[in-house]
Automatic annotation (TrEMBL):
GO molecular function per UniProt: purine-nucleoside phosphorylase activity
Known partners and oligomeric status: Homotrimer.
Pathway: Purine metabolism; purine nucleoside salvage
Family according to the record: Belongs to the PNP/MTAP phosphorylase family.
Function field: The purine nucleoside phosphorylases catalyze the phosphorolytic breakdown of the N-glycosidic bond in the beta-(deoxy)ribonucleoside molecules, with the formation of the corresponding free purine bases and pentose-1-phosphate. Cleaves guanosine, inosine, 2'-deoxyguanosine and 2'-deoxyinosine.
NCBIfam families: PNPH, PNPH-PUNA-XAPA, PRK08202.1
Official protein name in the record: Purine nucleoside phosphorylase
Lineage: Bacteria, Bacillati, Bacillota, Bacilli, Bacillales
Ranges of residues in domain Nucleoside phosphorylase: 20-267
Amino acids binding phosphate: S27, H58, R78, F79, H80, A110, S209
Catalytic activity: a purine 2'-deoxy-D-ribonucleoside + phosphate = a purine nucleobase + 2-deoxy-alpha-D-ribose 1-phosphate
Pfam families xrefs: PNP_UDP_1 (PF01048)
A GO CC term attached to the entry: cytoplasm
Length: 269
């Protein structure tokens, strides 16, 4: 049995079936999982093949239940490349979700704003991404059972889901930006020169996650919606140093809007 299959069977032994909507909750955004009703909670450490998450603000568990009536499986905390996990491990949960029946993946993260019209606290629909990890989770022998060798990334973020999120946001009165997410390895934040470079390259926000998971999800044929919480302006834009505390404070401040938006979008999926 493959590791993916083993993890899938373990999860399915704890719950009848997995919903077809998966959520990956980023730094400070894991609170969404606390709103899930009738939760079945599975710590990552219990799941065969899952590493354990180490970052402050990341809980490290799978929560399966209902978000205002819609069944979802949420990852409360994710695995980052900068923690030293291989790309295979970073993307393993996405593979397992897909194998267990998840077909739509909502990925969220905290990110630094590169676009100078953004402000800390903004929510941004990910229109597209730029992979700056210097590697790709699909490097190595392709598993044809998971997806094709050369997956198309021209609509990595499903146009209909972006549209749905925008419509929903205006219905519920939540302001929403849209832009290109740049995925960097971290864990050091960018230098001001790097932020200027990323702006020239077409980036609107920068973070240390999401890109690997989205590549794996698209490879596996999942539909992806990405939402960034602009937790700070990227380095050099404001005259202040960047801290993880600021990231956590901002996500805490905007979590109501974030929760409302994700919940309303999920209801329509
Ligand atoms: N840079 C990279 N990752 C981040 C940032 C940032 O400014 N803010 C939150 N995650």
């Amino acid at each position: 049995m493959t590791q993916i299959e083993e993890a899938k069977q373990f999860i399915l032994s704890k719950t009848d079936n997995l919903p077809d909507i998966g959520l990956i909750l980023g730094s400070g955004l894991g609170v969404l999982a606390d709103d899930i009703q009738n939760p079945v909670t599975i710590p990552y450490t219990d799941i065969p093949g899952f590493p354990s998450s180490t970052v402050a603000g990341h809980k490290g568990q799978l929560v399966i239940g209902e978000l205002e009536g819609t069944r979802v499986v949420a990852m409360q905390g994710r695995f980052h490349f900068y923690e030293g996990y291989s790309m295979d491990l970073v993307t393993f949960p996405v593979r397992v979700m897909k194998a267990a029946g998840v077909s739509t993946l909502v990925v969220t993260n905290a990110a630094g704003g590169i676009n100078e019209s953004f402000e800390a606290g903004d929510l941004m629909i990910i229109d597209d991404h730029i992979n700056q990890f210097g590697t790709n989770p699909l490097i190595g022998k392709n598993d044809d059972a998971l997806g094709v060798r050369f997956p198309d990334m021209s609509q990595a973020y499903a146009p209909e889901l972006k549209q749905l999120a925008e419509t929903t946001a205006s219905e519920i009165g939540v302001a929403l930006k849209k832009g290109v997410y740049v995925g960097n390895t971290g864990p050091s934040y960018e230098t001001p020169a790097e932020v200027r470079m990323l702006r020239t390259l077409g980036g609107d926000a920068v973070g240390m996650s999401t890109v690997p998971e989205v590549i794996a999800a698209v490879h596996g044929g999942m539909k992806v919606l990405g939402i960034s919480c602009i937790s700070n302006m990227a380095a050099g834009i404001l005259d202040q140093p960047l801290t993880h505390d600021e990231v956590m404070e901002t996500t805490e401040r905007v979590k109501q809007d974030f929760l409302q938006l994700v919940t309303a979008v999920v209801k329509k999926l």
